[in-house]
Amino acid sequence: MGKGRLEAFSDGVIAIIITIMVLELKVPHGADLAALMPLIPVVLSYVLSFVYVGIYWNNHHHMLHAASVIDGYVLWANLHLLFWLSLIPFATGWMGENHFEPVPVALYGLMLFMSSLAYLILERVLVSSNANNSPLVMAVGKDYKGPISSVLYLLAVPLSFVHVWLAFAVYLGVAILWFLPDRRIEKYLQR
User: At 2, is the secondary structure helix, strand, or coil?
Assistant: First the structure.
């Protein structure tokens, strides 16, 4: 299978994820600013999740752009990532609708942890499927941000039972860490 087909399928799934999230934003009943106040947690959850989906889409694009070999293992690893990303709308909605209660915030962190783990698995499968001198293998090298992010997500899960805003700060901090695309791949491909 060519990587173009894998990219197109992944882009379609990610577009659907964003569409589902935006459809969860309900229009308030009322025409004043006070009508928007109850929606603040929902909107904050949506913005954070939109940023996360964008981060995954951006880095997924860069990683696949550098890959030359797509095999069955890559297809399954990619589906594994898309499965966890597809749960973002549910976790986002539950967290926002319940005004950042500990259990929904912890589930959100668990979903972020599993998504990051799935991304790391996809990265490793792609590296093992491509030749040692391929642009992807040369560009990826040692990945520190990925494992650190996974550990931070995992730490934020119990932290959400201590204080939800500390867990939310971790989620926001990791998003800021990843906001710019992975430059290792871009730098290597520009050479």
Answer: coil
Tell me the pTM. 0.91
The answer to whether 177 and 152 are in contact (CB under 8 A) is no
In whole angstroms, give the CA distance from residue 39 to residue 97.
8
Coil, strand or helix at 43: helix
Q: Tally the domains of the chain.
A: 1
Q: What 3 state SS string does 90-123 have?
A: HHHHHHHHCCCCHHHHHHHHHHHHHHHHHHHHHH
Tell me if 190 sits within 8 A of 71, measured CB to CB.
no
Q: How crowded is residue 120: how many other Cβ atoms within 10 Å of its Cβ?
A: 17
The distance from CA 113 to its chain's CA centroid, rounded to whole angstroms, is 9
- DSSP reduced 3-state for 179: coil
What is the residue range of 25's domain?
Answer: 3-190
Distance of alpha carbon 85 from alpha carbon 184, whole angstroms: 23
For residues 6-18, one letter each, b for 16 or more C-beta atoms within 10 angstroms of the residue's C-beta and e for the rest, the string is bbeebeebbeebb
Residues 107-118: tens digit of each pLDDT: 999 999 999 999
Q: How many whole angstroms from its chain centre is CA 117?
A: 10
pLDDT at 51 over 80: yes
The mean pLDDT value for 152-160 works out to 97
